[in-house]
Design brief:
427 residues; alpha+beta; Porin; 2 domains; 44% helix
């Protein structure tokens, strides 16, 4: 099933060469016209898979993580006198390095509302160091006594967690400037609403990571905008999945998985590049900024119970369930449209079904080598969540945008078939 013209022994040599030798040029000439050509064309072979040591992924760019977060803050005033305070805040990304903030604080005097924005001027696409985490924040403050103030802060951290030294200079009233230090944490990440379940987007530290948009094409009508936005979002999710499968290939090799599984993960990464290109074309020519190469770095370099449990959980949730649903959704959506869009969705459906089969193969291997930890890792995980069914313009469905009915049917089908299949695998 995972063999595309080479035997398992040949596949092992190919993957081993990518990982451990310097013969990349000869390998490209001999193998890549038939395999992994999309990865090679985008420079995703050699740099990602050659001798890469495991270390944490790069600190997140705002736009790479989520559109919005809801979190809380806790801090202490240091002037004019020491007092504890806390609060809740929401943040919304405006670009990779800028975000808007709305915070309500209580304690340390009168309750107050702060509205402002933050910019991280040293933010860039790539590996992140301390400078990229530095930010400046400014805004306005209004307390319950209707006093107005100016909010200024220096921050260190990202969109979801940070430290800050802030000050409030009151414009009305006679209070002295307020100086405080605080920590902010956003455990609730809000991704833009979308009924799509395409691909297997990269998740880092519990947060979905997707490429930022470099170009969003112009759309003439509301219908065109809806189609453009759907396929642009799909392209982002599909491209994010490339990094998921590159990382999976490295991690499967680290735990000693069969070479056919490693090669199949690279096949899937190559498929996802093609999917992203197709969806970007269907969006009218959307362009994406690539994720940092560091996002594909493995989270572990040797077999352990924890490593096998991570692979089991992701194979079940992201593969058997989510990609199973993605395959069924694309198949159902293809049946409702015609022409090039139908061919594109039918092709994506076949690929996603094969990616789901890869996850089932990973699960089967894990049940062989670590049945107890694999069973425990899956047992504590939820199934697919229900989808709210809403009416959609039939014209959008005919242009390849899946309706919520299609998504709900795909999720129900994937969940039921996966649970039945898992019961047979565990037995």
């Amino acid at each position: 099933m995972f063999d595309r013209g080479t035997s398992p022994r040949q596949q092992y040599r190919v993957v081993g060469s990518l990982r451990h030798s310097g013969f990349l040029v000869a390998l490209n000439e001999a193998m890549l016209p038939n395999r992994w050509s999309h990865l090679a064309r985008h420079g995703l072979l050699g740099t990602t898979l050659l001798g890469m040591a495991a270390r944490p992924a790069a600190a997140e760019d705002c736009g790479h993580v989520a559109d919005s977060t809801i979190g809380f803050v806790v801090g202490v005033d240091v002037s004019p006198r020491a007092r504890w305070f806390g609060g809740i805040e929401g943040r919304r990304c405006m670009s990779d390095s800028t975000e808007l903030m709305l915070r309500f604080e209580i304690g340390a005097g009168s309750p107050r509302l702060i509205v402002g924005g933050r910019v991280r001027p040293f933010e860039k696409d790539g590996d992140h160091g301390n400078a990229e985490s530095l930010g400046l924040e400014a805004g306005a403050l209004l307390d319950m006594n209707t006093r107005l103030g100016l909010h200024l802060a220096g921050t260190f951290g990202g969109h979801s967690a940070y430290l800050a030294a802030q000050s409030a200079v009151f414009v009305t009233g006679s209070d002295q400037p307020r100086l405080s230090v605080l920590a902010g944490l956003a455990p609730w990440t809000l991704i833009r609403d979308d009924v799509s379940v395409e691909g297997r987007p990269l998740v880092h530290e519990g947060r979905l990571i997707r490429p930022a948009l470099a170009l969003l094409p112009f759309a003439r009508s509301a219908e065109d905008r809806a189609v453009r936005d759907h396929f642009t979002s799909s392209a982002q999710f599909e491209m994010s999945s490339v990094w998921t499968f590159l990382r999976l290939a490295e991690e499967l090799a680290a735990v000693g998985a069969p070479a056919t599984l490693i090669a199949a993960a690279l096949d899937a990464a190559d498929d996802e590049v093609r999917h992203a290109e197709l969806c970007a074309g269907a969006a009218g020519g959307a362009e994406l900024s690539p994720l940092p190469m560091s996002m594909a770095r493995p989270r572990f370099t040797a077999r352990s119970t924890e490593a096998l449990a991570i692979l089991a959980a992701e194979a079940w949730c992201d593969g058997a369930l989510n990609e199973g649903a993605a395959a069924e959704e694309a198949r159902l959506a293809a049946a409702e449209t015609t022409g090039a869009t139908r061919s594109m969705l039918a092709s994506i459906a076949q690929d996603e079904a094969r990616h789901a089969e890869l996850s089932w193969a990973v699960l089967a291997w894990l049940f062989e080598v670590a049945p107890a930890s694999t069973r425990a890792a899956i047992a504590q995980l939820p199934s697919l969540s229900a989808t709210v069914v809403e009416r959609q313009d039939p014209a959008l469905t005919r242009r390849g945008v899946p309706s919520s009915e299609i998504t709900a049917a795909a999720r129900a089908h994937a969940g039921n078939s996966a649970r039945s299949r898992l019961a047979g695998l565990v037995a």
